[in-house]
Design goal:
Structural class: alpha/beta
Strand content: 15-25%
Shape: globular
CATH superfamily: Vaccinia Virus protein VP39
Strand order of the largest sheet: 5-4-3-6-7-11-10-12
CATH topology: Rossmann fold
Helix content: 25-40%
Length: about 260
């Protein structure tokens, strides 16, 4: 059994390092140490147990499985690009890990641009990790993720333009991509992400960053928050007038379809 599992793991490309048991860890580019650090940043302050979680862009599924390990009542893992790419074969890796772990995590092949209450429903917690800057339609897909988040949207993204204190986002044309990754399209700064999230009605936005990455906990309500970040990491948007909220709803890209 162990030898068979190890041989199956070796057939695939892995981004996530997933402990499958029996001493087998998938050889992900993202190391176990990074996963531990990110899991703590994403989840430790959130009441996961007993609540529903949607993972947009799950790929190999580490964070879907981690949410389930932490007691989530329901987890839906979704992906399109990584799961259908003939080189990455991401759906195969997800299914391999899911079988090995024996976790009840649902799976749905769907593009982030097609996420809506009608296609997936609404979830207490939505994960939008490492997806935003890979999408040419980044602002619309963020809107899609926001509309299905009942309590909390967690966004993790590449950042750029750190010296600009107004909302701004760098565009990376073909041939000038960070890390020579042709799927990298955008580099927002912190004010840009903060204000985009505020535009979707989140009442409280917490921000933690390294130099090139940012984690944003956008709370529609803080019912599931176990602990606040220090006050300097928190930002509360100004309340919009009724007319401004109406204009925002009318002008959202996904409202025009």
């Amino acid at each position: 059994m162990r030898e068979h599992l190890s041989a199956e793991v070796a057939k695939h490309i892995w981004w996530h390092s997933i402990d499958l048991g029996e001493g087998i860890v998938t050889p992900g580019t993202k190391t176990p140490a990074i996963h531990r650090q990110e899991s703590a940043s994403f989840f430790d302050r959130v009441q996961i147990a007993g609540h529903s979680v949607l993972d947009i862009g799950a790929w190999n599924g580490f964070y879907s499985f981690e949410a389930k390990r932490r007691g989530a009542r329901r987890v839906l893992a979704t992906d399109k690009f990584a799961w259908t790419d003939k080189h990455l074969r991401g759906r195969e890796t997800f299914e391999l890990a899911r079988r090995a772990l024996g976790l009840e995590v649902e799976a749905l092949e769907i593009d982030p641009a097609d996420i809506s209450p009608g296609t997936v429903g609404e979830f207490d917690i939505v994960l939008f990790l490492g997806v935003f800057y890979h999408r040419y339609d980044a602002i619309e897909t963020l809107a899609r993720a926001a509309q299905v988040a009942k309590h909390l949207l967690i966004v993790e993204t590449h950042l750029d333009l750190h010296k600009i204190d107004k909302p701004a986002m760098a565009f990376y044309p073909p041939g000038r991509k960070p890390h020579n990754d042709e799927t990298n399209w955008w580099g927002p700064n912190v004010p840009c992400m903060r204000d985009l999230l505020a535009g979707h009605g989140f009442a409280d936005i917490e921000i933690s960053t390294t130099f090139h990455r940012g984690i944003f906990h956008a709370w529609r309500s803080t019912e599931l928050r176990l602990q606040e970040l220090p006050i300097e990491a928190c930002w509360k948007p100004h309340k919009l007038s009724v007319s401004s909220r109406l204009i925002r709803e009318i002008c959202r890209p996904f409202r025009r379809r």
